[in-house]
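I would like you to sit down with the record closing this message with an eye to the fold:
=====
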Amino acid sequence: MAKLGGNCGEPGHGLTGTTPAHMHMDLPEKQCVAYLSEVSHNFGGKAYCYGGGFYRRGHMANALVGSGPGALRPMGVTPPSLESIDYHFELDNTAQVGESVIMAFRYQIFVTRSDVVLLSGVSGGDPRVVGVWDSLGNQKS
């Protein structure tokens, strides 16, 4: 960073392409984070999924919901209210409990009980798990 003239930085979101600037500008970093959850329940004509670690100003609006790669369908997402401390996202329609929900948003890993899974080979169509860590950075496998 210093070689390029910088004197400080928060590289996490800059490297993962999840800063507000990445939403509005053509920057070299491409978003490389996906949040995988599952439908937990349905209520009032809407599905709900787990969403711990959501950054409240993340501007997420859509998800992909389904039982597999060929069965994913787009669905709108309503983020939790500002009063919420542990999150469920409301989806626009009902879905089968246990179906996968794939989202992309600015995350805060340290406030989630979720695991972080590093994959390789995704862009080449051959995804492989490199490792699994808890939210504090401790490697689990």
About this structure: Residues 11-16 form the longest helix (6 residues). The mean pLDDT is 86.
